[in-house]
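input
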Amino acid sequence: MGESNEDICDQEQRPPSSNSLGCVSCTTFNILAPIYKRLDDQHCESEFHELWLNRNERILDRLLDLGSSIICLQEFWVQNEELVRMYEKRLGDAGYQTFKLPRTNNRGDGDGFHLLCSDPTMVYKILQYIDQYCQENQLPPLPVILCGDWNGSKKGNVYKFLQSQGFVSAYDIAHPCTNGSEDFSKEWISHRNHRGNMCGVDFILLRNPSKHRKPLKESLMEAVLGNINNLSLKLSPEAISPLHLLEADGSHINYSQFLQALAQLGLSGHSEDCIGTKDIKELWEQIDTDGDGVIDLSDFSKARNSCGFVQQNEDSEENTATAIRFNVSKAILLPSEVERGIWPDDYSLSDHAQLTVVFSPVQ
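output
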């Protein structure tokens, strides 16, 4: 049963208290804002007060029952004052300090973390901020935990970008793949969309301090090059190369045409999620390896296979040797059926499963 009390309260599935031997537990959950929950082709749940109120009360019951140290919610209906007050009251009474952040473009909901597309530039800016915060506050090397609805699978460029920065899926650490494949997502799912398609898009990612990490800018450039290739083929499946759409004479493009290509693919512009002018210039210089002012397919292929940035160590060997590190003690997806790739018909809390991970300090 997708929502049975036994499923929620089974002691074998519940994470240990965050006070157990210094453990830290984290739950991420896209709770599906009522303004997005479709009841039929014409109506959303937000039109029916008792429906969305009851569902969110049950969501809070489950979250409080788990009692995680950190709760990260996505699609939180920030524009509805009654819902906001209910969450703040019940979570506050349980000892939680709450923070909320509305999504851009006045969408009506808010997020702990929720990628709107497969664009790595948003993640790049987040990691940039984390690095800057640590430097400004002179913090020693520390574990970093990222969680949320990533709107993409492990095959996407965003996940590969994070992987190149040392992040690993905490769920996959706790549940090694058993089917002989490196694609863990074939064994579990966390989302069923309105079309009935099921996939694994919700992650809690861990990066422990390491003295070897690929430079952040290099990882971004690799991910953007991958996006250029994937998005161009998506727009034109018959394209024989990423440059096919905007080639001037069938063989190459100049810088102005390159800017047009990025705009057409949605990777540049005035949005906060787009690549900045400086990064675009660096990307161009990385692809135009011979500096002749144009790029052709051979230039693009070379750029994808090798990056022009110098490898560097992020943390000193002395600092990483004494740094705090986390192990993954436990990771569970609820309802439990999704861990076997099954979406239970009676599960109605959201169109996403909730993921909880328990981290323990390395002794």
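quick obs: Residues 1-13, 113-117, 307-314 have pLDDT under 50 and may be disordered.
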